[in-house]
Amino acid sequence: YCIICKSKAPLYLFECAHIKPRSVSNNEERNDTGIVSWMCRNCHKFYDVGDVSVIDPGIVVVSPEFNSMIYPNILKIDNTFNIKDYEKNREYYDYHFQNIFKKKN
Fold it and tell me: Using the 8-state DSSP alphabet, how is residue 38 labeled?
């Protein structure tokens, strides 16, 4: 299932998403299987551009810049995040939240 919205579908409909972008990861991080996770196509795009992120203790947050009035049914968040996954990969989620997530200016 998608780690962001929890949608369930056949595995071939999901994408292997980098929690911390590969382009800014060192060799050790690139070889760590925890740097990736499964996301549906929509959540993967939202995550990559910073519209959603994951914060301690594994809560999915939506950017204040994401206009849910324009896209009311496209981003459905389920905050039953896998805490063990968050704890194991905290540094990658924290990097994303600090450097990519669109916080309010």
Answer: E
13 Cβ contact partners less than 8 Å away, ≥ 6 residues apart: 40, 41
* Core vs surface per residue 73-94: b (16+ CB within 10 A) or e: eebeeeeebeeebbeebbebbb
Burial 6-43 (b: 16+ CB within 10 A, else e): beeeeeeebbebbbbeeeebeeebeebeebbbbbbebb
DSSP calls for 48-102: HHTSEEEETTTEEEE-TTS-TTTSTTT--------HHHHHHTHHHHHHHHHHTS-
Counting Cβ atoms within 10 Å, is residue 101 exposed (0-12), middle (13-18) or buried (19+)? buried
Instruction: Return the CA Rg of the chain.
Output: 13
* Residue 71 CB coordination number (10 Å): 12
Q: Is the pLDDT of residue 73 over 90?
A: no
- Residue 33, pLDDT score: 93
- Identify whether the C-beta of residue 60 lies closer than 8 Å to the C-beta of residue 81: yes
